[in-house]
Amino acid sequence: METITIRASSLPELFDCPARWEAKHIRGLRLPKSGAAQLGTAVHAGTALYDQSRLDGSSLTADEAAGAVADAIHRPEEDVDWGEDSQSEAERIGIALHTLYCRDIAPKQQYVAVEATCEALHITDIGLTLTGTTDRITVDAVGDLGIADIKTGKSAVSADGTVSTGRHAAQIAVYELLAGAAIGRPITAPAEIIGLQVAKTDKGRRAGIGVITDACEMLVGDEENPGLLQMAADLLHAGRFYGNPSSQLCNPKFCPAYPACRWRK
Protein backbone atom coordinates (compact mmCIF):
# COMPACT_ATOMS: atom_id res chain seq x y z
CA MET A 1 0.00 0.00 0.00
CA GLU A 2 1.24 3.47 -0.86
CA THR A 3 2.13 5.53 2.19
CA ILE A 4 0.78 9.07 2.44
CA THR A 5 2.47 11.59 4.73
CA ILE A 6 0.34 14.17 6.50
CA ARG A 7 1.02 16.80 9.13
CA ALA A 8 -1.01 16.15 12.25
CA SER A 9 -1.94 19.83 12.50
CA SER A 10 -3.77 19.60 9.17
CA LEU A 11 -6.11 16.75 10.18
CA PRO A 12 -8.89 19.02 11.52
CA GLU A 13 -8.95 20.83 8.18
CA LEU A 14 -9.07 17.54 6.29
CA PHE A 15 -12.24 16.56 8.14
CA ASP A 16 -13.73 20.07 8.04
CA CYS A 17 -13.39 20.45 4.26
CA PRO A 18 -11.40 17.88 2.28
CA ALA A 19 -11.51 20.10 -0.82
CA ARG A 20 -9.84 22.98 1.03
CA TRP A 21 -7.26 20.58 2.48
CA GLU A 22 -6.51 19.17 -0.97
CA ALA A 23 -6.12 22.66 -2.45
CA LYS A 24 -3.56 23.61 0.20
CA HIS A 25 -1.65 20.40 0.83
CA ILE A 26 -1.71 18.64 -2.53
CA ARG A 27 -2.09 21.40 -5.11
CA GLY A 28 -0.01 23.81 -3.05
CA LEU A 29 -2.39 26.75 -3.31
CA ARG A 30 -1.73 29.39 -0.70
CA LEU A 31 -3.25 32.51 0.79
CA PRO A 32 -1.47 34.97 3.06
CA LYS A 33 -1.63 33.97 6.70
CA SER A 34 -4.19 35.90 8.76
CA GLY A 35 -3.10 38.38 11.40
CA ALA A 36 -4.83 36.31 14.08
CA ALA A 37 -2.91 33.20 13.04
CA GLN A 38 0.40 35.08 13.06
CA LEU A 39 -0.40 36.46 16.51
CA GLY A 40 -0.81 32.86 17.68
CA THR A 41 2.50 31.93 16.07
CA ALA A 42 4.19 34.83 17.83
CA VAL A 43 2.82 33.85 21.25
CA HIS A 44 3.95 30.28 20.65
CA ALA A 45 7.45 31.52 19.82
CA GLY A 46 7.78 33.62 22.96
CA THR A 47 6.35 31.07 25.37
CA ALA A 48 8.44 28.26 23.84
CA LEU A 49 11.63 30.28 24.30
CA TYR A 50 10.67 31.03 27.90
CA ASP A 51 9.84 27.41 28.77
CA GLN A 52 12.88 25.98 26.98
CA SER A 53 15.13 28.35 28.91
CA ARG A 54 13.71 26.98 32.16
CA LEU A 55 14.45 23.42 31.03
CA ASP A 56 17.98 24.44 30.00
CA GLY A 57 18.64 26.18 33.29
CA SER A 58 19.18 29.62 31.78
CA SER A 59 15.77 30.86 32.97
CA LEU A 60 15.10 33.88 30.81
CA THR A 61 12.69 36.41 32.22
CA ALA A 62 9.33 36.91 30.54
CA ASP A 63 10.55 40.28 29.23
CA GLU A 64 13.69 38.73 27.76
CA ALA A 65 11.73 35.98 26.00
CA ALA A 66 9.18 38.51 24.70
CA GLY A 67 11.66 39.51 22.00
CA ALA A 68 10.65 36.35 20.14
CA VAL A 69 7.05 37.58 20.07
CA ALA A 70 8.07 40.89 18.51
CA ASP A 71 10.35 39.16 15.99
CA ALA A 72 7.53 36.88 14.81
CA ILE A 73 5.19 39.84 14.37
CA HIS A 74 7.57 42.12 12.51
CA ARG A 75 9.64 39.50 10.67
CA PRO A 76 7.20 36.68 9.82
CA GLU A 77 8.47 33.71 7.83
CA GLU A 78 5.53 33.88 5.41
CA ASP A 79 3.19 36.48 3.95
CA VAL A 80 0.63 37.84 6.41
CA ASP A 81 -2.57 39.74 5.66
CA TRP A 82 -2.97 41.98 8.68
CA GLY A 83 -6.27 43.39 7.41
CA GLU A 84 -7.45 46.21 9.66
CA ASP A 85 -5.03 45.17 12.41
CA SER A 86 -1.64 46.83 12.76
CA GLN A 87 1.55 44.99 13.57
CA SER A 88 2.19 47.32 16.48
CA GLU A 89 -1.20 46.43 17.99
CA ALA A 90 -0.55 42.73 17.40
CA GLU A 91 2.82 43.07 19.13
CA ARG A 92 1.21 44.78 22.13
CA ILE A 93 -1.45 42.08 22.49
CA GLY A 94 1.00 39.26 21.81
CA ILE A 95 3.46 40.41 24.46
CA ALA A 96 0.61 40.88 26.95
CA LEU A 97 -0.58 37.28 26.35
CA HIS A 98 2.98 35.99 26.56
CA THR A 99 3.45 37.77 29.89
CA LEU A 100 0.12 36.44 31.16
CA TYR A 101 1.22 32.89 30.30
CA CYS A 102 4.62 33.30 31.95
CA ARG A 103 3.02 34.71 35.11
CA ASP A 104 -0.12 32.60 35.53
CA ILE A 105 0.45 29.32 33.66
CA ALA A 106 4.14 28.44 33.43
CA PRO A 107 4.80 28.37 37.20
CA LYS A 108 2.14 25.67 37.61
CA GLN A 109 3.53 23.43 34.89
CA GLN A 110 6.15 20.70 34.94
CA TYR A 111 7.49 20.18 31.43
CA VAL A 112 9.93 17.58 30.18
CA ALA A 113 9.96 18.74 26.55
CA VAL A 114 9.11 21.90 24.61
CA GLU A 115 8.17 21.79 20.93
CA ALA A 116 8.75 18.02 20.73
CA THR A 117 9.01 17.05 17.06
CA CYS A 118 8.20 13.68 15.54
CA GLU A 119 9.77 13.47 12.09
CA ALA A 120 7.76 10.43 11.01
CA LEU A 121 5.35 8.06 12.69
CA HIS A 122 4.61 5.23 10.26
CA ILE A 123 1.26 3.46 10.55
CA THR A 124 1.83 0.82 7.91
CA ASP A 125 -1.46 -1.08 8.08
CA ILE A 126 -3.41 1.98 6.86
CA GLY A 127 -0.65 3.50 4.71
CA LEU A 128 -0.28 6.71 6.72
CA THR A 129 2.73 8.57 8.06
CA LEU A 130 2.21 11.35 10.58
CA THR A 131 4.57 14.22 11.23
CA GLY A 132 4.29 17.17 13.57
CA THR A 133 5.30 19.01 16.70
CA THR A 134 3.68 18.89 20.13
CA ASP A 135 3.76 22.15 22.08
CA ARG A 136 4.68 20.66 25.46
CA ILE A 137 5.12 17.28 27.11
CA THR A 138 4.23 17.35 30.79
CA VAL A 139 4.91 15.06 33.73
CA ASP A 140 2.53 14.68 36.67
CA ALA A 141 3.16 13.92 40.32
CA VAL A 142 3.37 10.15 39.76
CA GLY A 143 5.62 10.39 36.71
CA ASP A 144 3.02 9.90 33.99
CA LEU A 145 3.53 11.89 30.80
CA GLY A 146 0.89 14.04 29.15
CA ILE A 147 0.77 16.82 26.60
CA ALA A 148 -0.21 20.47 26.73
CA ASP A 149 -1.29 22.47 23.68
CA ILE A 150 -1.48 26.27 23.63
CA LYS A 151 -4.49 27.83 21.89
CA THR A 152 -4.96 31.56 21.36
CA GLY A 153 -8.14 33.18 20.15
CA LYS A 154 -11.04 35.52 20.86
CA SER A 155 -13.06 32.64 22.31
CA ALA A 156 -10.28 30.58 23.87
CA VAL A 157 -11.33 31.22 27.49
CA SER A 158 -14.84 32.11 28.63
CA ALA A 159 -15.59 34.83 31.18
CA ASP A 160 -15.79 32.23 33.97
CA GLY A 161 -12.36 30.86 33.09
CA THR A 162 -13.57 27.75 31.25
CA VAL A 163 -11.40 26.62 28.34
CA SER A 164 -13.21 25.05 25.39
CA THR A 165 -11.76 21.60 24.70
CA GLY A 166 -14.25 19.54 22.68
CA ARG A 167 -13.31 20.79 19.24
CA HIS A 168 -9.64 20.06 19.91
CA ALA A 169 -10.00 16.44 21.01
CA ALA A 170 -9.25 14.85 17.62
CA GLN A 171 -6.09 16.87 17.11
CA ILE A 172 -4.96 16.25 20.69
CA ALA A 173 -5.38 12.50 20.21
CA VAL A 174 -2.96 12.54 17.29
CA TYR A 175 -0.52 14.81 19.13
CA GLU A 176 -0.43 12.27 21.96
CA LEU A 177 0.72 9.64 19.47
CA LEU A 178 3.36 11.97 18.07
CA ALA A 179 4.60 12.99 21.51
CA GLY A 180 4.97 9.38 22.56
CA ALA A 181 6.99 8.64 19.42
CA ALA A 182 9.14 11.74 19.89
CA ILE A 183 10.05 11.01 23.50
CA GLY A 184 10.01 7.20 23.33
CA ARG A 185 7.49 6.74 26.14
CA PRO A 186 3.71 6.32 26.19
CA ILE A 187 1.51 9.33 26.89
CA THR A 188 -0.98 8.30 29.57
CA ALA A 189 -1.86 11.41 31.60
CA PRO A 190 -4.80 13.63 30.61
CA ALA A 191 -4.04 16.26 27.98
CA GLU A 192 -4.25 19.97 28.69
CA ILE A 193 -5.47 22.81 26.50
CA ILE A 194 -3.85 26.06 27.62
CA GLY A 195 -6.19 28.80 26.48
CA LEU A 196 -5.07 32.40 26.03
CA GLN A 197 -7.91 34.82 25.37
CA VAL A 198 -7.08 37.47 22.78
CA ALA A 199 -8.41 40.93 23.67
CA LYS A 200 -7.31 44.54 23.33
CA THR A 201 -7.59 45.29 27.06
CA ASP A 202 -6.00 43.73 30.11
CA LYS A 203 -9.47 43.10 31.54
CA GLY A 204 -10.49 41.08 28.49
CA ARG A 205 -7.38 38.91 28.36
CA ARG A 206 -7.58 35.64 30.29
CA ALA A 207 -5.61 32.43 30.68
CA GLY A 208 -6.89 29.03 31.69
CA ILE A 209 -6.36 25.30 31.39
CA GLY A 210 -8.87 22.74 30.15
CA VAL A 211 -8.42 18.97 30.40
CA ILE A 212 -9.11 16.24 27.85
CA THR A 213 -9.10 12.63 29.02
CA ASP A 214 -8.84 9.48 26.92
CA ALA A 215 -8.51 11.41 23.66
CA CYS A 216 -6.75 8.50 21.97
CA GLU A 217 -9.89 6.38 22.18
CA MET A 218 -11.24 8.13 19.09
CA LEU A 219 -8.21 7.00 17.10
CA VAL A 220 -9.06 3.35 17.55
CA GLY A 221 -12.07 1.89 15.77
CA ASP A 222 -13.76 -1.47 15.87
CA GLU A 223 -15.33 -3.81 13.33
CA GLU A 224 -18.32 -1.54 12.85
CA ASN A 225 -16.86 1.93 13.39
CA PRO A 226 -13.54 3.06 11.91
CA GLY A 227 -11.25 5.17 14.05
CA LEU A 228 -10.12 8.69 13.22
CA LEU A 229 -6.90 7.68 11.50
CA GLN A 230 -8.62 4.99 9.42
CA MET A 231 -11.13 7.59 8.25
CA ALA A 232 -8.33 9.98 7.32
CA ALA A 233 -6.47 7.24 5.45
CA ASP A 234 -9.62 6.25 3.57
CA LEU A 235 -10.17 9.85 2.43
CA LEU A 236 -6.57 10.32 1.37
CA HIS A 237 -6.12 7.02 -0.47
CA ALA A 238 -9.47 7.33 -2.26
CA GLY A 239 -8.82 10.95 -3.18
CA ARG A 240 -12.43 11.86 -2.47
CA PHE A 241 -11.90 15.49 -1.61
CA TYR A 242 -15.47 16.72 -1.39
CA GLY A 243 -16.26 20.27 -0.33
CA ASN A 244 -18.12 21.57 2.69
CA PRO A 245 -19.85 24.87 1.91
CA SER A 246 -21.23 24.89 5.47
CA SER A 247 -17.73 25.20 6.92
CA GLN A 248 -17.10 28.38 8.90
CA LEU A 249 -13.95 28.77 6.81
CA CYS A 250 -15.79 28.61 3.45
CA ASN A 251 -14.65 32.10 2.61
CA PRO A 252 -12.21 33.62 0.09
CA LYS A 253 -10.15 34.89 3.05
CA PHE A 254 -9.44 31.34 4.22
CA CYS A 255 -9.76 29.04 1.20
CA PRO A 256 -7.51 29.34 -1.86
CA ALA A 257 -9.89 27.12 -3.86
CA TYR A 258 -12.94 29.29 -3.11
CA PRO A 259 -13.17 31.20 -6.43
CA ALA A 260 -13.38 28.01 -8.51
CA CYS A 261 -14.99 25.69 -5.94
CA ARG A 262 -17.64 23.50 -7.55
CA TRP A 263 -19.22 22.66 -4.21
CA ARG A 264 -20.65 26.15 -3.72
CA LYS A 265 -23.93 26.77 -5.53
Detail the topology: elements first, then pairings.
Elements: E1 4-7, H1 11-16, H2 18-25, E2 33-34, H3 35-56, H4 62-65, H5 67-74, E3 80-81, H6 87-104, E4 111-123, E5 128-139, E6 145-153, H7 169-183, E7 191-197, E8 207-212, H8 228-238
Parallel strand pairs: 1-5, 2-3, 6-7
Antiparallel strand pairs: 4-5, 5-6, 7-8
Question: Explain this structure to me?
Answer:
- This protein is of the alpha/beta class and 265 residues long.
- The protein has one domain: Lambda Exonuclease, Chain A (Alpha-Beta Complex), CATH 3.90.320.
- 35% of the residues lie in helices and 21% in strands.
- The chain contains eight helices and eight strands, in the order βααβαααβαβββαββα.
- Strands 1, 4, 5, 6, 7 and 8 form a six-stranded mixed sheet that branches. Strands 2-3 form a two-stranded parallel sheet.
- α3 packs antiparallel against α5 (67-74).
Question: Helical region count?
Answer: 8
The arrangement of helices and strands along the chain is EHHEHHHEHEEEHEEH
CATH topology: Lambda Exonuclease, Chain A
The description of the largest β-sheet is: 6 strands, mixed
**Rg, alpha carbons:** 19 Å
State the CATH architecture: Alpha-Beta Complex
Please report which band the strand proportion falls in: under 5%, 5-15%, 15-25%, 25-35%, 35-45% or over 45%: 15-25%
Shape by Cα distribution: globular
Class computed from helices, strands and strand pairing: alpha/beta
